[in-house]
Fold this sequence. Notes:
This is Polysaccharide export outer membrane protein. The radius of gyration is 23 Å and the shape is elongated. It contains six helices and 15 strands. The protein has two domains: 3-68 and 150-259, Outer membrane lipoprotein wza fold like (Roll), CATH 3.10.560; 81-146, wza like fold (2-Layer Sandwich). A hairpin with a 3-residue loop joins strand 6 (103-106) and strand 7 (110-113). It has helices spanning 43-46, 69-72, 119-133, 170-176, 213-217, 256-259; strands spanning 3-8, 22-23, 56-61, 81-86, 94-97, 103-106, 110-113, 140-146, 151-156, 160-163, 189-194, 206-211, 231-234, 240-244, 249-253. By secondary structure, the chain is of the alpha+beta class.
Amino acid sequence: MALTAVFLLTLLLGGCGGPVPRGVGSDVTETGTTGGNPLSGDAAKQYPTAPGDVETVPVTIGPPPDPSLDDLVYRIGPYDLLRVDVFGVEEMSSAGRVNFQGYYTMPLVGSISVNGLTTDEAESEIERLLGSRYLRNPSVSVHVEETANMNITLSGKMNGSLQISGRTTLGQVLASSGGVPPVGKKRQVVIFRATDETRQTPNPQLHAYVVDYQAILEGKLRDPLLVGNDRIYVPPSALALFFDPWLGVLRTYSPVDVQKTVTF
């Protein structure tokens, strides 16, 4: 069973201090808190909960679930560049970007909400609006000329961004970017992903997944599929991530001598 806890935003800041906790490995099965909720099981009797005012991100030790076929279908989002063709009515055809609120502006029709729609769904919605006001039996095609929501960002000991398409895995992205350097921590690569409920919103909530990339290379762990706007963080090899049972959170510790007290 995967470990679900909370991931302090100090992960990226390298915070330290507190008692030396038990290390996080691929065989950890405990469940921690989420922003102050009680620990489950026997752990609730032994450890206090995380402070309610700590800014946290939920975390799972292990790869994220692979997206469904429906999730792999591209959905229009803010700043995408669209081309909308209205068959036989050239003056109503147009091209432009979706605004930050997810609206696309067409001649005569005005602003149309297309955020989160597939191109087929956007075509049906535009045909409905045109048919109700301007045209009889309109035929519309919508093309995404440029995507703004299929980017993957690398940070930490690997930096950069790239666009993905189709079925793209963590291993493929890291390999195509030159591989994790010796100063990077292969055992604890972090994928930050927007939750399903908030993915199409301006400020999505994140969930963190700590993935053992070395195990992927050795064929011992599933290589997870990525989705648009995933953020991959490769921590320095001298930075250790731990599950802190006293707070029920993941924390970072340095220098290396702290890491040496733990066997992964």
